[in-house]
Known about the structure:
Layout: H1 2-38, E1 42-44, E2 50-52, H2 61-80, H3 84-101, H4 103-106, H5 140-176, H6 178-193, H7 196-206, H8 211-219, H9 224-238, H10 241-248, H11 253-289, H12 300-309, H13 312-315, H14 318-346
Antiparallel strand pairs: 1-2
Helix pairs in contact: 3-5, 3-14, 5-6, 5-8, 5-9, 5-11, 5-12, 5-14, 6-9, 7-8, 8-11, 9-11, 11-12, 11-14, 12-14
Amino acid sequence: MTSETTGSTGSTGSTGSTGSTNDTNRTNSTTTSTGAGTGTGTGTDSTGTTQPSVESGGPGPRALARRRRRASVVRFWREYRRHRAGVLGLAALVLFVLVALTAPLTVGSDVDSVTDAPGQPLESPSGRFPLGTDQFGRNLLGLLVWGSRVSLLVGLLAAALSALIGALIGITAGHFRGWYATVMMRITDWFLVMPTLVLAIVLATVLSRSLGTIVLAIGVTTWPTTARLVRAQTLAVESRPYIERAKALGGGHWHVMSRHVLPNVMPLILAQTTLIISSAILAEATLAFLGLGDPTVVSWGGLLQDAREAGSVSSGDWWYLVPPGIGIAVVALAFTLCGRAVEAVLNPRLGVSR
């Protein structure tokens, strides 16, 4: 009787031991397959020690950043399309840019040649010359197309220089504060109260007459508005708690300004730049009209200056004056519409009409 009990107990024990072992094996295999299937980055070796898996699960930080940027661009374009005026301005800008880029193919690079002028001086519009000719007999339509290259280039470069200076001064003045911010803001106030056109004329008169001088004269006189707006936004951003946490974790000045402040003020800089471009194009036309531009290149303002010198106002040669003026007005209006639409998308609280 005792032996039977012992045998039963032994068989039961071995059966339980075997079942426990099988359960353990199934658990290990399930754990291993689950880790391999889900890509959690862990596994179990022969000794039972957990080891990191070679394969990493999910996209990396750069892929996530690119995905967020694409989503932001898609979201921005979806909101921008709701502004009919902004879409109209963008279509006009695309048309002007295409005309400017294809000018060497459509009108040729010798359209501004005085010695090879195809027509007579100041011919009225006709089938051969849709916009007439200038005082040298050159085709005004070709000159208008070629001049768009210079006007757009100067406007874009001058606006970029103005935005760069304004953003640099605004961010640094808002970050460092103290005596540096006081000095920078007093300089900004001085530029604000001084007439921009007068300062640009002074710089264009002192320096040599070239496109670089025009860009410099416009860029260094139109940045104060951007600087004040960016400084105000920088002060608002740096008052947030995560800036304090970044500084407490050892983030330096450059890290805070480049990684935290700049991405938050960049939408404001972009909107302000689109608004500055129209002013820069008008300023370039004004300087060229006053005879302070580069006399070796053709621009819309230069065409107006040539028309004034030829006496088109008194003689009634309207085709010499109207097309360049319309081109300047349309491009300035298109950039203004785009700038207002961008500003409304980035800051919906402005309530800009669509």
